[in-house]
Write a structure and sequence with these properties.
Blueprint lengths: L2 E7 L5 H16 L4 E7 H4 L8 H8 L3 H10 L3 H25 L4 E4 L7 H5 L7 E4 L17 E4 L2 H9 L7 E3 L15 H8 L7 E5 L8 H10 L5 E5 L4 H8 L7 E4 L5 H7 L2 E5 L2 H9 L4 E5 L6 H9 L3 E3 L3 H13 L1 H13 L5 H14 L1
Parallel strand pairs: 1-2, 1-3, 3-4, 4-5, 5-6, 7-8, 7-10, 8-9, 10-11, 11-12
Helix pairs in contact: 1-16, 8-11, 9-14
Bound molecules: uridine-5'-diphosphate.
Length: 371
C-alpha cells in the first residue's frame, strides 16, 4: 500500500508552497505510485486567531521592515526560540492535535519555520517520522531547527553551520539543496523559441522582473524607473498574486517594450526565455534563477531571513545588489551594455545550481521512512 506523506506549508509568500510542490513532484517522479501526498496550509486551517490570518497579512506585514526585523530577531536564538515555543504551546496545542487527527500520515514533512517545534510535540500520541526541509538559504531562523524533528534537510553548508551553532548535531541534518520544481531541470525549447512563444522581441535583451509569489517589494517603482530611464531592454513583469500591482504596472506610461503578467504556473518557461532576472532576494526565485543560468539584479530582501541570500549570490558572483530603483536602472543598464559580464555572471549562476535537489530530497525522505 502507498505510504502517505503530509506536507505542512503556508502561503506566507509563494516559496513554501513551491518547495512542497517541488518535493512532491520529486517523489512521484522517483517513486511512481509508491506515495500518496497531501499538503496542508497549517497556519490558515489549523492555528488559532490571529495566527490563522498570517497568509493574508504577510504581504503587508513584510512591508513594515523595521517591525518585521525586530520581531524576527527578538525570537532568533536558541534560548529565545525555546522560550517562545514553550510559552505559545498551550495556545497552539489543540489546533495542532486536530491537524494530526484529521490528517493521518506515515510521515510529516514541514517546509515552514513555524511548524517544527509545535507539531512534533503535539504528535506524541501518534509518533511518525517528522522531517523539516529548510527553505531559507543562509540567515535561517532558529525556528527551523527543532531537536524534536527526526531530520532537518538544509539547502546550503551555511544553513548547516547555523544549525550546529543553534545546538543541533551534524548527523541530525543533511545538506541537499533548495527544493525547486524538477521542471526547471527539464530540457525545453531554446531561449529564442521561448521568446517567440511569449511574443517577446529578439531585438533587445529581456529583463524579467518578479517580486516572489505575492508581487512583493517596490516592483512598480522598479518597473517605472526602468521605463522612465528608457533602458534598452524588453521588460517582462510578473506580478504574482498581487492584482493591484498588475493593474498599476499595466497602467504605467510605457515607453519601452514591455509585457505584464499576473500569477503564472509556467515560471520555468519565463525564466528560461529571459536574459536578466530582477528579483526580490527570495530563496525560491534565486535557486530557480541559478538553474536557468540567469544573471541577477536583486532589488529588495526581507530583513533577517533573506539578507544572507544577497551575500550568497554576491559571493558566487551571480548577481548584483541594487536596493533602490535608481541603482537597479544602473545595474540593468550595465548588464545590457556589457554582454561579456552578463555571460560571466550567467556562468557563475549556473555553477550555484542544484537542479536535482527536489528529487534528492525525495530519496532522503524515502530512506527516512525505511528506518
Ligand atoms: N512564482 C510562481 N508564479 C508567479 C510568481 C512566483 O510560481 O507568478 C513562484 C516562484 O517561481 C518561486 C516562488 O513563487 O518558486 C517565490 O518564492 P520565493 O522564495 O522567491 O519568494 P516568496 O514568495 O516566498 O517571498
Amino acid at each position: 500500500m502507498a505510504k502517505r506523506i503530509l506536507f505542512l506549508f503556508s502561503d506566507t509568500g509563494g516559496g513554501h508552497r513551491a518547495a512542497a510542490n517541488a518535493i512532491i513532484d520529486g517523489l512521484h517522479l522517483e517513486y511512481p505510485g509508491q506515495f500518496d501526498t497531501d499538503m496542508v496550509d497549517f497556519l490558515r486551517y489549523y492555528s488559532p486567531r490571529p495566527l490563522r490570518y498570517s497568509p493574508r497579512l504577510y504581504p503587508s506585514l513584510s512591508h513594515m521592515k523595521s517591525a518585521w526585523k525586530l520581531t524576527y530577531e527578538s525570537m532568533n536564538g536558541p534560548k529565545r526560540s525555546r522560550a517562545v515555543n514553550q510559552i505559545t504551546y498551550p495556545y497552539l496545542r489543540r489546533s495542532s492535535e486536530r491537524l494530526i487527527a484529521e490528517n493521518p500520515a506515515d510521515m510529516i514533512v514541514s517546509v515552514h519555520p513555524l511548524a517544527n517545534a509545535v507539531i512534533p510535540r503535539a504528535m506524541r500520541h501518534n509518533p511518525v517520522p517528522f522531517v523539516t526541509v529548510v527553505t531559507d538559504m543562509v540567515t535561517t531562523h532558529a525556528f527551523w531547527y527543532s531537536p524534536r524533528a527526526d531530520l532537518v534537510i538544509v539547502p546550503t553548508d551555511q544553513a548547516m553551520n547555523r544549525g550546529i551553532r543553534l545546538g543541533l548535531k551534524a548527523d541530525h541534518m543533511k545538506v541537499v539543496g533548495q527544493p525547486v520544481s524538477p521542471d526547471f531541470a527539464c530540457e525545453i525549447e531554446s531561449k529564442e523559441e521561448l521568446k517567440r512563444e511569449h511574443g517577446w522581441t529578439e531585438d533587445t535583451p529581456v529583463a524579467l522582473l518578479v517580486g516572489g509569489g505575492d508581487g512583493m517589494g517596490p516592483v512598480r517603482r522598479v518597473a517605472r524607473a526602468i521605463n522612465d530611464a528608457e533602458v534598452p531592454v524588453t521588460l517582462a513583469v510578473i506580478c504574482g498574486r498581487n492584482e493591484e500591482l498588475y493593474e498599476n504596472v499595466s497602467k504605467l506610461n510605457w515607453r519601452i517594450p514591455h509585457h505584464v503578467y499576473g500569477f503564472t504556473s509556467e515560471m520555468p518557461r519565463f525564466m528560461k526565455a529571459a536574459d536578466i532576472f530582477i528579483t526580490k532576494a527570495g530563496p525560491g526565485s534565486i535557486s530557480e534563477a541559478f538553474i536557468c543560468g540567469l544573471p541577477m539584479v536583486m532589488y529588495a530582501c526581507l530583513p533577517g531571513q533573506e539578507e544572507g541570500n544577497v551575500d550568497y549570490v554576491l559571493d558566487g558572483k551571480a548577481g548584483l545588489w541594487a536596493p533602490d530603483p535608481e541603482t537597479v536602472v544602473q545595474a540593468v543598464t550595465n548588464l545590457v551594455e556589457a554582454p561579456a559580464i552578463r555571460a560571466t555572471m550567467a556562468e557563475a549562476s549556473l555553477n550555484l545550481a542544484r537542479p536535482n535537489a527536489a528529487r534528492e530530497i525525495a530519496h532522503v525522505l524515502a530512506a527516512q521512512l525505511q528506518k
